[in-house]
Amino acid sequence: MIAHRICPLCEACCGLELGIEAGQITSIRGHDADVSSAGFLCPKGAALGELHADPDRLRAPLVKRDGAFVEVSWDEAFAEIERRLPPIRAAHGPNAVAMVLGNPTAHKAGLLLYGARLTRALGTANVFSASTLDQMPKQLAAGWMFGHWLSVPVPDIARTELLVILGANPMASNGSMWTVPDFRGKAKALQARGGKIIVIDPRVTETAKHADRHLTIRPGGDVFLLLGIVHTLFADRLVKLGRLAAHVVGQGELEAAVAEFAPERVAARCGIEAVTIRELAHQLAATERAALYGRIGTCTQEYGTLASWLVDVINTLTGHLDEPGGAMFAKAAAFAANTLGTPGIGKGITTGRRRSRVASAPEVFGELPMTCLAEEIETPGEGQIRAAIVIAGNPVLSAPNGARIGAALDQLELMISLDIYLNETSRHADVILPGFSSLAEPHFDVAFPQLAWRNTARYSPAALEPPAGHPAEWQMLVRLIGIVKGRGAAVDVAALDDELAAEDVARAAGPAAPMVLAQVSQWRGPDRLLELALRSGPYGDRFGMIPDGLTLAKLVAAPAGIDLGELAPRIPELLRTPSGKVELAPPALIADLARARADLDRAVPALVIIGRRHLRSNNSWMHNLPMLASGKFRGAAMVHPLDAARLALRDGGRARITRGERMIEVEVEITSDIMPGVVSLPHGWGHAQPGTQLRVAAERPGANLNAILDDALRDPLSGNAVLGGVAIEMAPIADFGNS
Question: Which helix (H) or strand (E) holds 71?
Fold first, then answer.
């Protein structure tokens, strides 16, 4: 049998064609007819069968008894939660329970949609997610400029003539906050039609190797480069707002704010010569169809929000925002807030509605920084976290100072983990609730069509039968909601789901709610929420008012998806700012420039560290699959030959990296692909921790970059962790490899 499936393993969301015999995956190839990925397949998608069959994947609930995990029935697991969770909330209030959400949550409609419902039911202010480890600066800047957290412009790569990539490696990631399957193919097509690609990165990345030009930049210097470009655009009279002139405010305030950041002033700080900064500004302004794209490297640093904002500012000032071939906005078929309500104006975003109890870090997008989690557990007092529900998260590896997080988790009165593995974080849990194989559940990407290179709608029915008696993840979450609401562990999941859906529809549809509910009555769980979102969305049938409109039934009948067309201009319709304008100069960002101004003359450390991404990996959760873990070890620390000679390091030898009192040991790879003064170590490794069940990952555990990073170092606006550009020391270890 052949089944078609959207890959859930990274943001590319590629369409796959699965061969299935007797419930087993016999082949995986790209689905040639898929309207988004057109047959592209990367190694992660090819390994989906191994993930399904992985013997280490948990298949039954675990409860910790006398310090050891034992398998129990589902009823026993939920009874344990009911026995322990409500008394904690009753004694200490809703904030005593934290929600911790990991990256895979974004790839599962059930986890994403019902995780939000569980958070509302808990009523807790203590919500933490992986967003503050990699992307919150981009979301915050977009919210201030355009009015919503997911109104993020992405390069219109199919039509651009110049693509400038800053601190990103889409050849390895196939986009990050930019769903662009087969970036390599699209980049080659761009160059074949005469276009150019410029990569600005401390490392000669996979993307840089295929670019027309590569420029090295000092880690953390992105904001200074971008300010130099903005200064040049104003000083050399290159600003051209074009069609957007009537829809932009704050140009004067912005010009005044960048007056001190001339290219000659910022060159030393970013490591790029002033003449090159001016050249980049002129090239972006002079090219008819151009886009500047910045990602992980621009976000995971101390100026993450400023850098993310300035990327969109430059696209705006050069006339490339919301224009074909420039940086454009997707128009998703479902769940996109910028397609709902009154077009062109809105309430915008609000931050800092509350602050973390210990560090006083502001809430952003309803979340507190992940780096505040440990201190909120450790510190006694009103509001102390005493229980946590961790959904598909592994902050012990993915967040700075993971050892502290692990120790804090052990102090909790109750930790519940929804995870398919016994990993570095879930090993601290009292109860683990494992999901079944993603191939046994329907799939729809909630967030990624809002960031896609082309407008499409795609849905995958379950390719395999779920295990008998094993609830879906959304059903587990509904059962937890039942416990929180006092309905008990034996709550009727279907009935409670009906109630939750009815409440949602009543809020949205008012008197029409009974009619709307009747029209979606054939669906349950996430499918029902998807049906509601599709039919009320920009392409929907409006519950019969537009007969040719989109419904879930039409998506089910289209295994290759439905093509909704190339990106099209959306301003002013997309805007949800109170002014109804693109805000070029949000006050908090203009004020934060004072930090950069004071930092212009800071001395550059002799050695700093950055992370990196690989096509066969995604954070910490793909190192247990033989197909992806085989071959050359990809967890080594890259060091430039000049630094290696200065530090007496040998290729293939081992070294000690220290930052203050923290230390890790790494394998050394000497290569000119990294700039002098910079070490690159991939994020998400460090699997040699006791009590885990990740046998393949443990064979070559690698070193945990985050173990040496400071959990108090954050971008003050977004709360995002600083994961790169921090000073380190490095020295050889006198072992066989260095003798």
Answer: strand 68-71
Kindly state the DSSP code that residue 604 receives in the 8-state scheme: P
> Tokens for 396?
């012990």
The backbone torsions φ and ψ at residue 371, rounded to the nearest 5 degrees and listed phi first, read -70, -5
Task: Give the H/E segment covering residue 639.
Answer: strand 637-639
Q: Which residues contact 594 (CB under 8 A, 6 or more apart)?
A: none
Spatial distance between the Cα atoms of 489 and 570, rounded to a whole number of angstroms = 47
pLDDT in tens, 50-97: 999 999 999 999 999 999 999 999 999 999 999 999 999 999 999 999
In the chain, the percentage of residues whose pLDDT exceeds 70 is: 99
CA angle 345, 341, 535 (to 5 degrees): 150
Residue 735's pLDDT band, with cuts at 50, 70 and 90, is low
| Cα→Cα distances 149→203, 314, 338, 451, Å | 30, 19, 9, 11
For residues 448, 452, 457 and 462, what is the CA-based torsion angle, rounded to 10 degrees?
-40
725: left (phi over 0), alpha (psi -120 to 50) or beta: left
Tell me the whole-structure pTM to 2 decimals.
0.97
- List, for residues 658-699, the tens digit of each pLDDT value: 999 999 999 999 999 999 999 999 988 999 899 999 999 999
> CA torsion sign, 515 to 521 to 525 to 531?
negative
| Distance from the first to the final alpha carbon of the chain | 57
Phi, psi of 350 (to 5 degrees): -130, 135
Q: Is 516 helix (H, G, I), strand (E, B) or coil?
A: helix
Structural domains in the chain plus CATH codes: 1-53 (2.20.25.90), 147-329+571-596 (3.40.228.10), 605-738 (2.40.40.20)
Q: Identity (one letter) of the amino acid at 274?
A: A
Residues contacting residue 660 through CB under 8 Å, at least 6 positions apart:
710
pLDDT-above-90 percentage for the chain: 96
Which residues are within 8 A (CB) of 641 and not within 5 positions of it... i.e. 6 or more apart? Answer: 670, 671, 672
